[in-house]
C-alpha cells in the first residue's frame, strides 16, 4: 500500500481559513482536506499558522498572525484565561458561543448519529442572560509555593498549581471562602499534599453553595484521616462565614488523579446543605452529584418535564437520577416515578428529598441502571415515559436494549455529551423511536461543553 504523505510539514508556515471549532475549542483549518487544529482561532477567521506536530490523519498548529477576525472575536475578560484552561471559548462573544454550540450539536447528530437533520429540530441554545458567576461549586487543588499554600488550578498541561483569587464563572462567595480557608490553613502551618512524593496532607478544598438558601458546605480532601489543629480551623471558618452550615473531611490516601476517596466524615454542623430548584427543596451531601449551574438547571429540568408530556397518571422511570432532582420534578405530574442511581449516598439523599417535599409517589433504587431497569421490566414495571441522564459515556447497551423491549411511548434523553447522545439516538431510532426535538441548554458558558435534552417518540405505527 502506498503510504499517503500528509500535505503539511512540521515547522512550516501556511496561510489558512478556519472552518470550524473542535469540541475543545480549537480552530480547525483544512490544508488539501487535511485538518489542522489551532488553538485560539475561530471559524471564518484567516491567518498564518506554523505547524507544530503532524500525526497520521491530522496536525496541530500555532496561530502566528490573524489576517481576518471573526465578528464573534472578543478579548477574553479573564486575566488568567490562557493559563487556566477551565474555560475554552472566552475569546468568543456569548452570542457566538451559543451559535457554535447549536452547530456542534447538529453536526454531531448528523455525523455520528446519522440522523435525518431535515426532520430533527435542533433548537437555538437556551443561554443565560448574565453568563458569569454561575457556578455553585468550587473544587480546587492545594499546593505549596515557597513554604506557603496555594489554591487554584493546575496550569494547562502541567501539574503545577497556580493560586487563583477570582474565577469569573464562579459565585464570588465560593472564591472568598476558598481563599479564606487557604489563609486559615496557612496560619496554622498546615501542609499541602505533594503529588510526586505522595506526602503532606491537604489535597483539595471543595466549597458548595446553595444559592437559593445561602447555605454553604466546605469539604477538606486530605491524604490521611487526622486533622491538625481541627478545632481552631473550624472555629475560624464559622466565625468568618456564618452561612457555612457543614464542614466535612474526605480522606483520599491513594496516589491518584481522582479527587475524592471513599471515607467521608462530618467535622462540624450538618451532613447536608439545602438548595431549591423551582418549588422543590434538595438536601445535598458532599459526595452527591448536583448540577453546578442552578439557574440553567431549572431551564433544563423544565424542558425535560415538558418533553415528558405527562398527564398525571403515567409510570415514569428516571435513570441515572442522582439525588432525585429530575424524579421529583416529574413526580409532581406523574402517577408513579421510579429512580435509579449507582451512588448509594445519592439515593439516600433522593429519599430524604422526596420526604422533605412531601412527595410520596416515588421509589428509588441503588444500582446500575442497566441492571436494575431490566429487573424492573421482568417484575412487570413498564414505563410510559423513560428519562435518562447518563454521565459522559452515555447509556449502557443493556439499558438501551431494555428500553427497546419495554417500549415506553416517550424517551427523554438528557445528555452532557453530544457524541454519546448521537450514538445512543441512532440505536433507539433503529429500534423504532423517532427523535422529535433536541433542545441544547447552556449549562457551562465560556466552556465548550453543551447539555441537551432530546425527545423521542415511539414510532406512531408501532404504538397505535
Ligand atoms: N439526573 C441527575 C444526575 C445526572 S449525572 C441530576 O440531574 O442531578 C449522572 C448520574 O449517573 C450520576 O449521579 C452518577 O452517579 C450516575 N451513574 C453513573 N453511572 C451509572 C450507572 N451505570 N447506573 C446508574 N447511575 C449511574
CATH topology of the largest domain: Rossmann fold
Radius of gyration: 24 Å
What is the overall pLDDT average? 95
> What small molecules does this complex bind?
S-adenosyl-L-homocysteine
Taking strands numbered 1, 2, ... along the chain, how are they ordered across the largest sheet?
A: 6-21-22-20-19-16-17-18
* Contiguous uncertain segments of 5+ residues: none
Number of strands: 22
Q: How much of the sequence is in beta strands? A: 25-35%
Structural class comes to alpha/beta
CATH architecture annotation of the largest domain: 3-Layer(aba) Sandwich
Could you explain the architecture of this structure?
With 464 residues, the protein is an alpha/beta fold. The protein has three domains: 13-68, OB fold (Dihydrolipoamide Acetyltransferase, E2P) (Beta Barrel); 98-129 and 293-463, Rossmann fold (3-Layer(aba) Sandwich); 137-276, OB fold (Dihydrolipoamide Acetyltransferase, E2P). The protein is built from eleven helices and 22 strands. Helix 2 packs parallel to helix 10 (418-430), helix 5 crosses helix 6 and helix 8 (369-378) runs parallel beside helix 9. Bound molecules: S-adenosyl-L-homocysteine (SAH). S-adenosyl-L-homocysteine is lined by residues 289, 291, 320-322, 325-326, 340-343, 346, 368-370, 389-391.
Amino acid at each position: 500500500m502506498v503510504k499517503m504523505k500528509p500535505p503539511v510539514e512540521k515547522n512550516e508556515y501556511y496561510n489558512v481559513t478556519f472552518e470550524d471549532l473542535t469540541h475543545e475549542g480549537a480552530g480547525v483549518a483544512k490544508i488539501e482536506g487535511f485538518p489542522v487544529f489551532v488553538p485560539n482561532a475561530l471559524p471564518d477567521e484567516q491567518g498564518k499558522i506554523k505547524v507544530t506536530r503532524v500525526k497520521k490523519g491530522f496536525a496541530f498548529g500555532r496561530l502566528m498572525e490573524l489576517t481576518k477576525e471573526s465578528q464573534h472575536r472578543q478579548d477574553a475578560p479573564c486575566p488568567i484565561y490562557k493559563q487556566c484552561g477551565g474555560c475554552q471559548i472566552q475569546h468568543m462573544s456569548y452570542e457566538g458561543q451559543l451559535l457554535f454550540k447549536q452547530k456542534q450539536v447538529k453536526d454531531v447528530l448528523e455525523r455520528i448519529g446519522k440522523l435525518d437533520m431535515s426532520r430533527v429540530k435542533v433548537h437555538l441554545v437556551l443561554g443565560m442572560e448574565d453568563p458569569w458567576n454561575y457556578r455553585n461549586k468550587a473544587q480546587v487543588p492545594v499546593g505549596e509555593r515557597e513554604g506557603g499554600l496555594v489554591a487554584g488550578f493546575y496550569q494547562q498541561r502541567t501539574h503545577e498549581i497556580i493560586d487563583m483569587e477570582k474565577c469569573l464563572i464562579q459565585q464570588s462567595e465560593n472564591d472568598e471562602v476558598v481563599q479564606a480557608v487557604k489563609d486559615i490553613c496557612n496560619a496554622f502551618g498546615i501542609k499541602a499534599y505533594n503529588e510526586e512524593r505522595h506526602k503532606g496532607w491537604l489535597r483539595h478544598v471543595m466549597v458548595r453553595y446553595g444559592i437559593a438558601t445561602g447555605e454553604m458546605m466546605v469539604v477538606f480532601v486530605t491524604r490521611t484521616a487526622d486533622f491538625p489543629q481541627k478545632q481552631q480551623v473550624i472555629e475560624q471558618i464559622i466565625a468568618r462565614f456564618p452561612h457555612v452550615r457543614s464542614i466535612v473531611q474526605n480522606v483520599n490516601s491513594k496516589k491518584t488523579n481522582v479527587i475524592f476517596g471513599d471515607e467521608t466524615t462530618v467535622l462540624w454542623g450538618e451532613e447536608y446543605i439545602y438548595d431549591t430548584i423551582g418549588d422543590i427543596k434538595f438536601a445535598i451531601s458532599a459526595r452527591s452529584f448536583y448540577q453546578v449551574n442552578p439557574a440553567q438547571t431549572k431551564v433544563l429540568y423544565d424542558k425535560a418535564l415538558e418533553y415528558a408530556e405527562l398527564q398525571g397518571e403515567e409510570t415514569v422511570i428516571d435513570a441515572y437520577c442522582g439525588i432525585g432532582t429530575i424524579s421529583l420534578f416529574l413526580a409532581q405530574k406523574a402517577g408513579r416515578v421510579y429512580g435509579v442511581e449507582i451512588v448509594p449516598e445519592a439515593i439516600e439523599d433522593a429519599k430524604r428529598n422526596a420526604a422533605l417535599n412531601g412527595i410520596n409517589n416515588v421509589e428509588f433504587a441503588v444500582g446500575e441502571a442497566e441492571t436494575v431497569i431490566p429487573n424492573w421490566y421482568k417484575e412487570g414495571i413498564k414505563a410510559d415515559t423513560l428519562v435518562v441522564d447518563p454521565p459522559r459515556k452515555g447509556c449502557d447497551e443493556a439499558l438501551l436494549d431494555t428500553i427497546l423491549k419495554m417500549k415506553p411511548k416517550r424517551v427523554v434523553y438528557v445528555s452532557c455529551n453530544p457524541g454519546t447522545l448521537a450514538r445512543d439516538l441512532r440505536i433507539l431510532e433503529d429500534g423504532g423511536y423517532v427523535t422529535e426535538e433536541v433542545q441544547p441548554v447552556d449549562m457551562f458558558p465560556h466552556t465548550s461543553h453543551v447539555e441537551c435534552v432530546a425527545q423521542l417518540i415511539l414510532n406512531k405505527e408501532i404504538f397505535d
